[in-house]
Amino acid sequence: MILTYEYYIDPELDISHTTKHNVSHEEIVEFFTETNYIKYQRKDKSYVAISKIKNKRYLQIIYRQIKKDYLYIITAYDIDDPYLIEMIESNYKNENY
Question: N or C, fewer C-beta in 10 Å, the chain?
């Protein structure tokens, strides 16, 4: 399935909020198409997803799934929480990566 992405634009900076956190749109695409990410839905119906991409960055992405193949990316940033990093690594070990 081909996904379509739309990005929240920070009105003060006129750039995507992901860019503000030095996460490229290419890394977002890689995250959703090439990793086995862990996700959960928040009370506001948006999602939080975590994973590690090829360049060894641990990312957390906040997004809304507008349609099955359409994601509205709110923000993305590096993870520095050791608990979340361990959860990601455990997920990779269980998937035989």
Answer: N
CA distances from 30 to 7, 14, 38, 45, 67 (A): 15, 24, 14, 23, 19
What are phi and psi for residue 94, nearest 5 degrees? -70, -25
* 58-67: strand order across its sheet: 4-7, 70-78, 58-67, 47-52, 38-41
pLDDT of residue 93: 74
Neighbours of 18 (CB within 10 A): 24
User: What's the CA angle centered on 79, arms 76 and 84, to 5 degrees?
Assistant: 120
52-78 in b/e burial notation, b at 16+ Cβ within 10 A?
A: bbeeebbbbbbbbeeeeeebbbbbbbe
pTM score, whole prediction = 0.91
